[in-house]
Amino acid sequence: MAPPPSGLPARQLALPLPLLAGHDLADLLEDASNAAALAWLRRPADWPGGRLALFGQAATGKTHMLRGLAAARGWPVLEGLALRGWPAVPPGEGLALDDADCAPEEAALLHLLNLCAERGQAVLLAGRDPPARWAVTLPDLRSRLRAMPAVAVHPPGDALLSALLRRHFLLRQLRVERPLQDWLLARLPRAAAAMEEAAARLDRAALAAGGRVTRALAREALADLPGFGPGPEDDDSMASRRDACPDGPSLL
Questions:
Q1: What is the rounded distance in angstroms from the CA atom of residue 73 to the CA atom of residue 194?
Q2: Taking the chain, what is the end-to-end CA distance rounded to the nearest angstrom?
Q3: Average of pLDDT values for 174-179?
Q4: Is the pLDDT of residue 230 over 60?
Q5: Is 125:100 a contact under the CB 8 Å cutoff?
Q6: Would you give the DSSP letter of residue 172?
Q7: Is the domain 31-152 a CATH 3.40.1130.10 member?
Q8: Per-residue model confidence as pLDDT tens digits over 117-144
Q9: Which contacts qualify for 17-23: CB closer than 8 Å, 24 or more apart?
Q10: How many other C-beta atoms lie within 10 A of the C-beta of residue 94?
């Protein structure tokens, strides 16, 4: 491979291609928000009746966990929104159903659970609420859902979000000083997906600008990111406070 042209930083030759989003359980960082769920996922043989449901708000990592376990064990993954009629259920040790609470037909979900029970297949579900609270009308389905063990996946805490943001920067070989990382965390949505999206946007912006990541660049690159906003104290308000202070010693 030819060396980069003289005077051109090697980083500018990198193509701003999106990183492939994998679902590997080993990639999940553990904290109090997901520790209980990860403990259950490590021992499928202990699931009561071979069933387990993950539940929690959007962007808490449920899909990553569900697909990570499915990939590790070779289970097929089905989508709740596509579950209709008499769904084809591939044979095997188990299967995973994402957005299970969005299945448009109750009979289809009941058929899937019954067929898996007959075959002795394990089933992992994911949804916003625990299955016992799903609005179903079929008595047989309601009883099966109420008997299913469920574990909550909570929104990630500050330590986990910080670690995720650092990981995404490292994956992209993007150098961002720690004070700027803290500044970003105070302004980004409290979701794991937001850390990945922010890193991708900053990477593209830094490549286009041919320079380092600064607060000004971050403001511009993330301005239209849903949920991105001013932190507890933005720079403009800090500057205004300094200007309003009388001359003399200052702690700012």
A1: 28
A2: 50
A3: 95
A4: yes
A5: yes
A6: T
A7: no
A8: 999 999 999 999 999 999 999 999 999 9
A9: 18/200, 19/171, 19/172, 19/200, 21/196, 23/63, 23/64, 23/67, 23/68, 23/70, 23/71
A10: 22
CATH topology of domain 156-226: Helicase, Ruva Protein; domain 3 (1.10.8)
pTM for this entry: 0.72
Average pLDDT over residues 54-68: 91
Measure Cα distances from 1 to 4, 5, 13, 173 in Å.
9, 12, 12, 20
- Rounded to the nearest 5°, which phi and psi values hold at 150? -135, 145
How far is it, in rounded angstroms, from Cα 245 to Cα 252? 10
- How many Cα neighbours within 13 Å face the side chain of 102? 12
> So where are the chain's domains?
31-152, 156-226
Assign residue 97 a region: left if phi > 0, alpha if psi is -120 to 50, beta otherwise? beta
d(CA 124, CA 161): 26
Higher pLDDT, 58 or 146: 146
Instruction: Decide if 80 contacts 101 (C-beta within 8 A).
Output: yes
- The DSSP line for 36-91 is HHHHHHT-GGGSGGGEEEEE-STTSSHHHHHHHHHHHHT--EEEGGG--SS-----
Query: Residue 55: what are its φ and ψ, rounded to 5°?
Result: -140, 150
